[in-house]
């Protein structure tokens, strides 16, 4: 059981003696225990009056709801992507809480984008970083360590001219050491990683960013056509749990998605993010990258924070930059 | 015809006690409540308080259709075509469902309503507050600030205009509106379980002037529930609660709902989640969607309403908020 909720236990003193006795007799001293039932079920179970049940539920709900927002930091804290244009496109940067999805064809810069954020999250707060580490879950290729080393050696130059902060602070960050990497090949592994490893890692390390590159790879193979309902349930569970983690700990979650071509009504072929509705329903912000012969674009498909627009970017030695 | 005691929502314990004391119908109970001696004998054996029992025995109050029509209130959006679709806006005292694919404008419309509900009385608004129950982290202070700024811009334009706004007091009030004060009238509550909606009672006590509750999204907390029967129970008890609150406090409830794919004989079809029985419980159902290949154009289809048949409205979402489509198509 969750030990922290014991402190926030139901305060029996606010109830009348009979209700107190009934709650003790029924063993309902934790708000989570009470809220497993609906009001009507609970009333039958402990034999309380309508009013008293309502009071118990309101008290329990207050406790339970206040546990959700235990995370007191400002919710509108943004994380820079390391590129001013993209930050502007996103309404200031990446917003914490909720899942940000980035999709696009292979080779249009999704992984570059993720690597860069894994570094910017370590920047000090005045530079719109979060001064914390990242967890990077790879499902497709091996983690591109040589590329990240290259980016690390460049990031110091990038912010050199910024006099908002102490240079020493910037140099002291051990970029490589703050990124936890996990390689995963199957859905079961991914579940294990998300449900077991991440909560533990979050306790011991100052991690504020989780990147899954990509969520699609593990879901492409494993399922047969008849198993589609199970697939969407697995997807939903993973997305739901990620979302829950992000709200509880105030995290940024970035998931990379592939694209599928879909036949639109007017005959044209169009690339849409994979995984369908059961996944998309749980995505907070959806970004899409695309590539033409000469340039790359990043587009906001939907986001609660900003309108959908498109900006060009380029991939350089330093990472992702605006043109 | 007498109403038997067991039809009252009393606990089993009390009903047994009353039965032993010889109470068979509610009328006996009413009589003995007026008799101080009898009252004390049975109240001693009771866990319900006197006021609770009196409350149970009260005849429900009814209103005539004419009275109801006078009391009708609605929250106008900033989009005329949606207002017309809903007969003046989101109806107070009712539950309105907004469903749509991700990115179809559900959260945007919800946030717009949180601003709209604050329109001062001299602009024929409700001048009230809003509660935003955030379950999917779609609440965006940034967007709300933009929408409020757009509204305040409109207000200051009116103030500087030729029309004198119904006296000194009103223009004072309009001048006192600031982004921060309007933002503070939108109370955000984070939840991850539908049973936590009971906490709304406490929130409402603290902020009695709330006229709008948005639950965005209503389905998010249900994704963790495996058992579909259980899910149904939870949905309906939450709807009972919201319906009660809507009626008691005379406020509008707006729920957002996701779309889901279902395999039918004609192939895969997309429709709002939570099934048919949910549809019966909400009074207005709006299906929002983005018009493909048209940047920033959306439709709202009225799927259910007591006033209108199926009809649709078009709207756009600008940085100012949810608005009508410009009548002239801007040159591209």
TrEMBL record, chain A:
It comes from the Eukaryota. It is found in: Nucleus. Keywords: ATP-binding, DNA damage, DNA repair, Nucleotide-binding, Nucleus. Residues 75-259 form the RecA family profile domain. Gene3D superfamilies: P-loop containing nucleotide triphosphate hydrolases. One of its GO terms (biological process) is double-strand break repair via synthesis-dependent strand annealing. The keyword Nucleotide-binding applies. One of its GO terms (molecular function) is ATP binding. The keyword Nucleotide-binding applies. PANTHER family: DNA REPAIR PROTEIN XRCC3. This is RecA family profile 1 domain-containing protein. It comes from Aphis gossypii.
Automatic annotation (TrEMBL), chain B:
It is found in: Nucleus. Its main location: nucleus. GO terms for biological process: meiotic DNA recombinase assembly; reciprocal meiotic recombination. Keywords: ATP-binding, DNA damage, DNA repair, Nucleotide-binding, Nucleus. One of its GO terms (molecular function) is four-way junction DNA binding. The keyword Nucleus applies. InterPro entries: DNA_recomb/repair_RecA-like (IPR016467), HR_Repair_Mediator (IPR052093), P-loop_NTPase (IPR027417), Rad51_C (IPR013632), RecA_ATP-bd (IPR020588). Gene3D superfamilies: P-loop containing nucleotide triphosphate hydrolases. Residues 71-259 form the RecA family profile domain. CDD domains: Rad51C. GO terms for cellular component: Rad51B-Rad51C-Rad51D-XRCC2 complex; Rad51C-XRCC3 complex; replication fork. This is DNA repair protein RAD51 homolog 3. It comes from Aphis gossypii.
């Amino acid at each position: 059981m969750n030990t922290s909720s014991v402190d926030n236990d139901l305060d029996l003193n606010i109830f009348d003696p009979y209700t107190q006795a009934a709650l003790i007799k029924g063993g309902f001293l934790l708000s989570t225990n009470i809220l497993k039932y609906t009001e009507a079920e609970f009333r039958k179970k402990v034999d309380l009056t309508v009013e008293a049940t309502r009071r118990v539920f309101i008290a329990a709900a207050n406790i339970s709801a206040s546990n959700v927002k235990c995370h007191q930091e400002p919710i509108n804290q943004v994380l820079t992507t390391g590129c001013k244009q993209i930050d502007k496109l996103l309404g200031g940067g990446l917003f914490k809480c909720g899942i940000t999805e980035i999709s696009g064809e292979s080779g249009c810069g999704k992984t570059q984008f993720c690597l860069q954020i894994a570094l910017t999250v370590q920047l000090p707060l005045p530079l719109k970083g979060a001064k914390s580490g990242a967890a990077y879950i790879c499902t497709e290729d091996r983690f591109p360590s040589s590329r990240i080393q290259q980016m690390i050696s460049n990031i110091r130059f990038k912010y050199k001219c910024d006099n908002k902060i102490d240079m020493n602070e910037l140099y002291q960050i051990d970029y490589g050491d703050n990124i936890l990497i996990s390689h995963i090949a199957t859905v079961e592994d991914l579940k294990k990683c998300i449900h077991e490893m991440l909560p533990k890692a979050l306790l011991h390390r100052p991690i504020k960013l989780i990147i899954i590159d990509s969520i699609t790879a593990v879901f492409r193979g494993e399922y047969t056509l008849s198993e589609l309902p199970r697939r969407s349930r697995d997807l939903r569970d993973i997305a739901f749990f990620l979302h829950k983690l992000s709200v509880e700990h105030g995290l940024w979650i970035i998931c990379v998605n592939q694209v599928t071509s879909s036949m639109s009504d007017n005959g044209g072929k169009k690339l849409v993010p994979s995984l369908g509705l059961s996944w998309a329903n749980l995505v907070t912000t959806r970004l899409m990258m695309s590539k033409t012969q000469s340039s790359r674009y990043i587009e906001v498909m939907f986001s609660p924070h900003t309108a959908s627009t498109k900006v060009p970017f380029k991939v350089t030695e330093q990472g992702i930059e605006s043109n | 015809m007498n109403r038997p005691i067991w039809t009252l929502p009393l606990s089993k314990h009390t009903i047994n006690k009353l039965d032993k004391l010889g109470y068979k119908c509610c009328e006996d109970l009413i009589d003995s409540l007026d008799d101080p001696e009898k009252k004390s004998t049975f109240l001693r054996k009771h866990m319900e308080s006197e006021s609770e029992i009196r409350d149970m025995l009260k005849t429900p109050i009814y209103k005539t259709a004419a009275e109801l029509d006078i009391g009708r209130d609605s929250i106008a959006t900033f989009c005329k075509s949606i207002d017309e679709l809903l007969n003046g806006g989101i109806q107070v005292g009712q539950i309105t469902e907004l469903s749509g694919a991700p990115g179809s404008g559900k959260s945007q419309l919800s946030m717009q309503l949180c601003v709209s509900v604050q329109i001062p009385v001299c602009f024929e608004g409700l001048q009230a507050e809003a509660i935003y129950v955030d379950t999917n982290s779609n609440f965006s202070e940034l967007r709300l600030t933009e929408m409020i700024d757009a509204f305040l811009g409109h207000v200051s334009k009116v103030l500087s205009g030729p029309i004198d706004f119904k006296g000194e007091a009103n223009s004072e009030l309009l001048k006192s509106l600031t982004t921060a004060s309007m933002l503070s009238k939108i109370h955000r509550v984070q939840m991850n379980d539908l049973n936590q909606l009971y906490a709304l009672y406490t929130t409402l006590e603290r902020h009695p002037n709330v006229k709008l509750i948005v639950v965005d999204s209503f389905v998010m907390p249900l994704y963790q529930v495996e058992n579909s029967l259980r899910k149904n129970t939870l949905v309906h008890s939450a709807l009972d609660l919201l319906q009660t609150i809507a009626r008691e406090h005379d406020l509008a409830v707006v729920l957002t709902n996701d779309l889901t794919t279902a395999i039918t004989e004609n192939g895969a079809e997309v429709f709002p989640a939570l099934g048919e029985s949910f549809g019966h419980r909400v009074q207005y159902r709006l299906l929002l969607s983005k018009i493909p290949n048209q940047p920033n154009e959306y439709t709202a289809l009225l799927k259910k309403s007591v006033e209108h048949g199926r009809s649709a409205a078009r709207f756009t979402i600008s940085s100012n908020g949810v608005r009508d489509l410009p009548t002239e198509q801007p040159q591209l």
